[in-house]
Write the structure tokens for this entry.
Amino acid sequence: MSSETPPEPVEARPWRPDDGPEPKVTMWPHRSRPALAVWSHGKWRNAPVMARQDWADGRVFYQVSVDLRGDMSVVARMYQWPQPGLRVAWYPSSEPVSGAADDRRLTPRTRPRPSGPGPEERPPTGS
């Protein structure tokens, strides 16, 4: 094992239309996400993966949630893979969620509207 400390990874910018076709995005169920280790402030920090982006030009990016300073302030970051300040922390135990058939699991459900009178039809409260 090397005694050299890696450089902190460089944050990537988001995809833009001038980058070519939209990237293929892969996600995992919340409780079974892979994780990267991110070198930050002299320590490896656990960073669960929110999404992997495979860009048309072959580059791979990971969106992670990470506590970069160790003070419980979790932020979202995107990093291009590979970089010396990133390494695999663990692999998921389930398959990724991706594709049109699985979109329903990724989008928030709207609550059904309650039956009965709407707010404008309800009698005012108070005197």
